[in-house]
Structure formats: structure tokens, C-alpha cells
Amino acid sequence: MKKFFSKTYFYGALSMFIIFSAGPFYIMLITMFKKSHDLFNPLNNPFWLNEGPTLEHLDLLFNQTLYVRFLLNTVLVGIAVVVITVLLAVPAAISLARLAGRWGENVGIGIFLTYLVPPTLLFIPLSRIVSFLGLQNSLWSLVLVYPTFTVPFCTWLLMSFFKSIPKDIEEQALVDGCSRVGAMARVLLPLSVPGIITVVVFSFTLVAHEYIYALSFIQDSAKKTIGIGMTTELVRGDVFYWGALMGGALIASIPVALLYTLFLDRIISGMSMGAAKR
Question: How far apart are CA 165 and CA 162, in angstroms?
Fold first, then answer.
């Protein structure tokens, strides 16, 4: 009997967690296919199609907005920011974890603290820099600005991850004739793949849903990312196009959800191994 109640409790809790996690996706899916009258009628069931499905919201999304362009801009900026973040964060984290001595940890904490500064305090000085460089209303402004908050956090995360890898492995490579750079490239980096994947997924996710900087630096619709493109194009005055908004949110969230699902084990490994030394 005790085993029965234990299993019941486990599967009950698991079912509640699944419903809680999948609920937003279900609501977005239902709303995307609801007719406007069905959507705004308070007497209708909000969790079901009461008047049959419709494609009017998808037609608005794809044919009357630049939604596909928003997605493409987000992917381009995301890839550029991920590359910059990895190229800067990996060597910085290795240096602080392996070569900096005692003060490396204090510098790492200082770098992480810069990530905690709210964007609402930084977008004004950053806008002056963007204006000085002539990058206003350009996707390059986002490529320049986004690493200011992805690099600090990813450096701190990778720094903790590299500390969890024993130094003996690198020392054995040095004894076998590798240079320090060779030992890092042939031994340390292959072992740090879970941490690097965590950095890649984290950076791309931050870029995909960032709002303040994109709203401040981009004005043309054709250059907007998904975060500001949907809210500025599908919220017109006091009219909210909920069907199109939910459809766009669902389509944009599916690749990110798949990305987390495919690399879930490595992401957990990257986060947990890094946490061991914090």
C-alpha cells in the first residue's frame, strides 16, 4: 500500500508538472486557430474551439506583417552574438580559471556582477556609443550590444565549469609534449563541450527574447527582431491581435524548445558540473 501511494504521488506530481509546462503551448495553439468572435466571447470555453478553426490569424501574421523577416533577423543576430560570445568567453574563462591565480575568482565575480546591471540603466549610454559608431537603426547595433550581457555571464559559467575539470589532465598533456595552447585545444576544450553548448543555448535564447535594446536601437520594421516585431506590428493602439500574437509566439518558441530538448543532458551537465566548484 505504501508503494502504491508513493507511485500515485509521483505520477500525480509529474502529471501536474507536465500540464503546467505544456499549458502555455496549448493555449497558444488553441488561440491561433480560434475565430475572433469565439476568442472574445466571454461565454465560450477558452480552452477549446467553440466555433470551428480558422486560418485568418495566420494569414494576418504571414501576409500582413514581416513575421518571416523578424525570424530571419533574430537568427542572424543570434548566430553572430553566439559566435562572439564563445570566442570571448572561452579564453577569458580558461585564463581566469587556470592562469590567473587567487585573484581570478574575484575578477570572475566582478565580471558576473556586470551582468546584473539592469538594461534600463545601460541603454542610454550604449545608445550614445551606437550613435557615435553610426550604427543606429542597424542589426549591427544589436550584434555590438548583446555581448555586453552574454559574455559576462557565460565567462562566469565557463570559469566554474573549467575549475571542475582536474588540472592533472592538462599536466599529463604537457608532459606528453603538448604546449599549453595545444593542451587546451586537444584536452580541455573537448571535455568542456557540455559547458560550451550551455553557453550557446543560453546566449541564443537571450537574444531571441531581448526587448529593451532592440526597441531602443531599431526603428524600421524590416530590421526588427521577433521580440519587438510582433509587439509593435500586432498591437495597434488599443487593439491586440491575440490570435496572430499567440501564433507567432508559438512558432518562434518551438525551435527554442527543441533546442533545449535535444541538448538537455549536456545543458544539465554543463550547469551541474560548473555548480560543483561555486
Answer: 5
CB 210 within 8 A of CB 120: no
The partner residues of 240 in beta bridges, in order of sequence, read 235
Q: Which residues of the chain have pLDDT under 50?
A: 274-278
Which option is the CATH number for 64-275: 3.40.50.10490, 3.40.50.10240, 1.10.3720.10, 3.40.710.10?
Answer: 1.10.3720.10
Question: Strand ranges (DSSP E) for the chain?
Answer: 235-236, 239-240
Instruction: Determine the Cα–Cα distance for residues 240 and 37; give it in Å rounded to an integer.
Output: 14
The pair phi, psi for residue 236, each rounded to 5°, is -115, 100
pLDDT in tens, 118-175: 777 888 888 888 888 888 889 999 999 999 888 888 888 888 788 777 777 777 777 7
User: What is the per-residue burial (b if ≥16 Cβ within 10 Å, else e) of 13-44?
Assistant: eeeeeeeeeeeeeeebebbbbbbeebbeeeeb
Mean pLDDT rounded to a whole number for the chain: 83
